[in-house]
Specification:
The protein contains 1 helix and 19 strands. With 261 residues, the chain is mainly beta. Strand 2 and strand 3 form a beta hairpin.
Length: 261
């Protein structure tokens, strides 16, 4: 699998770099109108890319929008697109926890190269000679609950990058650890960087910088926030080309959650 990349980026150094973080301009997210749907039969969810959470800038288009209900049944959702965001409506008539997902969406293929140990992406002629093709694959999700939470919708997809919720997302408490597990193709990923973003309060005196976490030897990491509010956790994981002549793959997973006292 590694041999499909340029020889100048061979061996363990390449694999190590592929698994590392990289800065990109926009981050994906899903944001529901409510996280507690106890008095709702429908929850509207926006999907977008942004540089400032949670202000939409670019609509997140996907053919895979769906809701996984408390019974584990997956139902496709039809998005409405504006230029800044996508909107989907999830029916929440039954009690329990719902998982709203974009599905794994394939993005564009871009040129990427290691610059000072981190992956950078380039346009056209600006790409250096050692650049390789890299395709982005994005999955954004959020959980909402009507009445008492249940765990059926929390079951891992088993494909690509995702977070398995050890602490139920509807039970996250401000000031306490919420535990997740990083999975790739259903297997735990140790030492994986995760970024925590908080909602950008434009009226706050000071802004809270994103926090970087890392999964342990079992692929688990704990999130603890000091202020109640809405947060996003995300990670990126890169793998070599699945077959000769195909691009490498850059997976991004993003989960939005609410923390309350």
């Amino acid at each position: 699998m590694i041999r499909s990349f340029r020889a100048s980026l061979a061996g363990g150094a390449l694999l190590s770099a592929l698994l590392g973080p990289v800065a990109q301009a926009h981050s994906p997210y899903l944001l529901p109108t409510v996280f507690d749907a106890s008095d709702r039969k429908i929850v509207t969810v926006q999907g977008a890319f942004t540089e400032s959470f949670f202000t939409p800038e670019v609509a997140m288009k996907s053919d895979g929008y769906a809701v996984i209900g408390p019974d584990g049944v997956r139902t496709a959702l039809v998005p409405l697109y504006t230029r800044e965001l996508a909107l989907v409506e999830a029916t929440t008539e039954k009690p329990g926890t719902y998982r709203i997902t974009t599905g794994l969406r394939a993005g564009r293929v871009a040129k990427a190269a290691l610059v000072k140990g981190e992956w950078a992406f380039f346009e056209g002629a600006k790409a250096p000679a050692d650049a390789i093709d890299m395709q982005s694959l994005t999955l954004a999700e959020v959980y909402v609950t009507r009445g008492a939470p249940n765990d059926t919708a929390l079951a891992p997809h088993g494909k690509g990058l995702e977070f398995r919720a050890v602490t139920h997302p509807s039970k996250i408490v401000t000031g306490q650890d919420a535990v997740f597990e990083v999975l790739f193709d259903g297997k735990p990923v140790a030492g994986q960087p995760i970024t925590l973003h908080g909602a950008d309060d434009r009226y706050a005196d000071t802004k809270t910088a994103p926090k970087t976490l890392k999964s342990d030897a079992r692929g688990r990491f704990a999130v603890r926030v000091d202020r109640s509010g809405v947060y996003q956790i995300q990670s990126r994981y890169r793998v070599a080309a699945p077959a000769p002549g195909q691009p490498g793959q850059s997976f991004t997973y993003a989960l939005t959650f609410e923390s309350l006292r």
